[in-house]
Amino acid sequence: EMEGVPSTAIREISLLKELKHPNIVRLLDVIHSQKKLYLVFEYLNQDLKKYMDSSQTRELPLSLVKNYLFQLLQGVSFCHSHRVIHRDLKPQNLLINEAGAIKLADFGLARAFGVPLRTYTHEVVTLWYRAPEILLGCKYYSTAVDIWSIGCIFAEMVTRKALFPGDSEIDQLFRIFRTLGTPTEATWPGVTQLPDYKGDFPQWARKEMKEIVPNLDQDGRDLLVQLLLYNPSRRISAKAALNHPYFFWRSPGSPEERHALQRHCR
User: Fold this and answer.
1) Would the pTM of this model clear 0.70, i.e. be above it?
2) Per the database record, which ranges form the Protein kinase domain (predicted)?
3) 144 neighbors 235 (Cβ within 8 angstroms)
4) Labelling 152: which of 7, 47, 126, 167 has CA 20 to 30 A away?
């Protein structure tokens, strides 16, 4: 480790050097001068958060949402196949350009994972995109935490509003429970044994996915259900998600998409 260089920067450099993929931001150079470290990345015009905020239409074209989701899953699948959990996926960390590419960025919190799974700190992932197993104090988590974040981002792209915009850990949990139902041993074996699970949690019923993302088709809703499964071991993998029927009729680069991108990625 270089003297005076934060461990997060060292971690990001070492991971990015080995993660070369079209949907992962490219590290072009590392400059170390006068006790400062500069990382030079490829330039992308905008991040997904700014793009969604600046888009004048109420909704993103669903074909563009599908295209972006497919690319994100490709990037995440590549990370996971190289034994890397990103741990901080959110719209602000997803960079886009007017050519229609979307790339994972900000690997400062990422972790290489081994077998068996290590004990990790649970103070990771911006609250709104944080998986329920982390919120409930689970220290042995896996690639499934990234999949949960992708599910939240997918819903947000469709509706243009955050799915679970909590302002504290307990508020975050209860927002999830109010939407997906309070988890039980039947829906999530082992949940009652997690450190921060409480037997007196309010009991909410699950809402229909059609109510949550009304303009998404049935295949899209089915994929979202699988991305947001409570049980991490049953949550769909990035690789399996790429083969979901939702993507069978993907038509990237439609005129609608190109127009939207050209308008906002300048």
Assistant:
1) yes
2) 1-247
3) yes
4) 7
Reduced to 3 states (helix: H, G, I; strand: E, B; else coil), residue 51 is helix
Mapping DSSP to helix (H, G, I), strand (E, B) and coil, where does residue 52 land?
Answer: helix
Question: Torsion over CA of 204, 172, 195 and 224, rounded to 10 degrees?
Answer: 70
Q: What is the pLDDT of residues 210-259, one digit of tens each?
A: 999 999 999 999 999 999 999 999 999 999 999 999 998 655 555 555 55
How buried is 147 (Cβ within 10 angstroms: 0-12 exposed, 13-18 middle, 19+ buried)? Answer: buried
| Strand order across the 46-47 sheet | 46-47, 94-96, 102-104
CA distance 136 to 217: 32
Residue ranges, the chain, pLDDT below 70 = 1-5, 12, 57, 108-125, 249-266
Instruction: Kindly list the structural domains of the chain, giving each domain's residue range(s) and its CATH number in brackets, ordered by start.
Output: 45-264 (1.10.510.10)
- Catalytic site residue from 47, 53, 88, 219: 88
HSE-up of residue 219 (Cα within 13 Å, Cβ side):
12
